[in-house]
Every structure is written in structure tokens, then in C-alpha cells.
Amino acid sequence: MPDAMKEPNMGQNQKRVAVIGAGIFGLSLAIALRKKGHIVTVFERNRYDKNKYEPEDDERVQAASVDLNKIFRASYGNKLHYQRLAMESRAAWLSLNEGLEDALFVGCGMLRVQPSDELGALERETLANMERDGFRDTQFVKSNVDDRKRATSQGWSDKLLDFDIPNSTEHRAFDAVLDSLGGLTRCSAACYQYYKMAVSAGVEFIFGSEEGAFQSFIEENSVVDASKKRVVGLKTKDGKSHKAHVVAVAAGSFSTQLLPELSYHLESAAGSLVTYKIDRNNKTLWDKYSPENFPVITWRSAPRACDGKDTGTIYVFPRTEDGIIKIGYRGVKFTNFQTAPNGVPFTQDGQWSIPLPYEDCKAVPPQAEEAIRTFVSIFLPEFDEAEFYTTKLCWYTDSLDNSFVIDYVPHYADQSVFVCTGGSGHGAKFMPVLGEHAADIFDNTDHAESHMRTHWRWREDIPRINGLEEGPDGPRNIGGGPK
Predict the structure, then answer these.
(1) pLDDT tens string 346-395
(2) How far apart are CA 477 and CA 352, in angstroms?
(3) Rounded to an integer, what distance in angstroms lies between the CA atom of residue 193 and that of residue 188?
(4) Residues spanned by the domain of 128
(5) Residue 251 and residue 19: Cα distance in Å, rounded?
(6) Considering the domain boundaries, does residue 478 fall inside one?
(7) Which of 128, 192, 217, 265 has the most CB within a 10 Å radius?
């Protein structure tokens, strides 16, 4: 680092790091970097210090981290590295729970309902890897007599629910796997807890729509690589400059707009969320859908929509302490293609997908509503004719292979820009350990001990799949950009 950037009492390997984004990735990274001795400032345009990450307190907030709850699962098919990371994270959640009055991880179990009366390939792969790591006894297959007996002996049988397949002439039921390791995390509450932990650890926060909002990098010529610029800080929208040895981008679905070099790797895509609300005085429903009696349920649906399309994966949570039941539709994550600014390295027909304005995120597309209504008629029959309490689009950061992007950006010299994003809808569960792995990569790059290093590296050498290949002419685009 140049002498001009050094400060009194800074160690040789200590860096001043500016983290953009105070969501799950940014908070976890900031705490881990601070533990390693770095000086960390987090910049965030939303006033999370005021609204405490509560989703109902500021409807303008579009961050996926600001949410009632997220699924915790260790079921990853043949992706053993993510299964093991999930188990590491689960232990950390349980440890964190011990010091809190209200648990952030709720081990209510997760019922993975199949699209038919047989196990799908993903479930068979998951069970094989669970057995490989010694966790097969935590999984209960509904169609397996021995598993049902074991579920009864361990107190899980009431959550191994039966659901009949609609219009089945033989009265067949969907097969299912109950994962007793699964459950949910109270996402907004966890973010606020981590914010307080970060403050206690010495992380500085700058919030505000002007003072906390990224405007641009501050760049200089590199003495090491004359072909590239090095970043020496950032400017915020209030006109102030902030020096830093490294700027770390952890801005979720807005990351590509801050760092267009990510445009090949990531795409903003929206899941559809609806809620119902149970009256506390309705004791029957209140008890039935409590986390003590009701698991998280996921279903990759077999029925087709009216246009013949697969209605996709849907999930539901037990009710919250306020009686809210949240249902999410991920069968189709919708894109919003708009004309990309000049200079964006990768576009599709000159366009890229970015989050819709918050005013346009209060309703879910008809395809999502239809799929959710079908799901409700099967799995939550008491709500079959009920109106939704709320509806919204939740913007995720889909990566080209569902793995995160946590690495230095090669377009900038001297390892001056770091990225920690690309949650692809499954990052929240890793909050307690994500930052530790990311900080290891930050400090040690290819010499990092993290087993996730190879999966999270900058990777322009693999094809865009996972839906990112569709572009503006794809069926998921609900944007108003040029077609």
C-alpha cells in the first residue's frame, strides 16, 4: 500500500476496507474482516439503523435481506460442498441462539414434497450425500416404512404430512422427505443482530440515501500494472470522498449497477412472495401453522399452468409470532430487461436485467399467482378462498451457476476491488459462516483454506446457464425495455 494511504498504528497487512451494502453478505463480510484486524466501513443507502431491517417499516427497501424469514436447508443434491457449508452454518446458528432471548434459527424441520408419489433424482442424490456424511438418520422418507417408524420414535411423525395428489383416480399421495436438520432463519432479525455485533466489533456504518449511497470509484494509475486502474476509495452521492485500500461490493441485486464488470456473472431476477395473516383468536389455525406443529414445506409442482408451462417450485413457512404465513414462488424468477448504459461489458441485445422500481414490485405476475393458488388449494386448504394479506416481488442476484461470486475483480489492479455477492436465493442460511470464508479468500486468495474458494472464484470461463442465457426475449422478462 502506498505510504500516503497508511495511517498511524496500522499493521503491515491491515487494510482500510469500504464495504458497499449492509445486507447478509456485507454484514457477514464486515464482521469477519474486522476480526482479522482490518479497518472496515460499511456504506448503505437504506436506514437500517432506524428501521432495524423490518420489512414493513419501509416499503421502499428492495433488498432480499430485508425479509421475515428464509429457508434453512442442507439438502443440495450432489453439491456436497454446499451441504457441508450448511452444516457448518447450522452449528453456528445454534451457538448464536444460545445467547439470545428469541432464536434466530428455528429448527422446525423442512418437508420436501415431491411432484409425484416417487422420489425425484435430486432427493435421491441428497439422501446419498446425507448418508455419506453420516446424517441419513435425520432424513425421513414418507414412503419408507422404517423411516416412518424412526420419525415416530424421535417425535417427528406429526410433521411427516400426507397430501393427496389432485385428480388422482387411485387416491395416491405425494411422496415427501422430512429433513429434521432444516427449518428457517428469521432473516430481518438476524441482520439487525449482526448489525449490532458489527458495531460492537468496531465496524463503522454510514447510512443514508446520499451519504451512504455509492456514486463512483476513486481511481488512480497503478505502478504495478500500467494497463489497469487501481481503486483507492469511493465517492458517495453527497459528494464526499472516502479513502480505502479495497472497496468490497456486496450490494445484492444492485451489484451489477455499481460494478458493471459483474454483468456476465450475475442477473437480477425476482421471486414472488405473498402472505396470509392468521387471527390470533383463531386457535385452530394458530396452533396448526405454528413452527411447533408445521414445517417449512417445499414443492416442485407437477400440475401445469393454463399455458402449459411448469408452475415450478413453491414454498411456505410456518406462521410468525404476528400470525404471518409467507409463501414464495420460485418456479419462475422474473427478469426486468432494460437498455444497459454505455460501457457495460456484457449485455444481451444491448440490455440487462435490473430490479424494477419499488412502486412496481407490490404485485406478483399472473403466472405466479396462479401457481400459488394451486399450491394453497392442496397444502393450505383453509386459505383456498382467502385474499392475500400482502404481495411483492423480491429481487435476487442469480449467478450463472448458482454459486456466489467472492473474489478480487481482475479488471482492477493491486487487488483493490473485491466482490461478495451472487446469493442466487440460497445465501441467507450461510450468514454466520459466509464472512469467515470470504475473509479468508480476501486475505489469502488462492492460498485460502476455505473449501469454497474454487466454487466462488471469478469465472468468466464457464457458460451462462441457470436461465441467464435467455435474455430479453426469454419468457421470464416482465420489463418494459425494447424487445
Answers:
(1) 999 999 999 999 889 999 999 999 999 999 999 999 999 999 999 999 99
(2) 11
(3) 9
(4) 96-185+269-339+357-396
(5) 9
(6) no
(7) 265
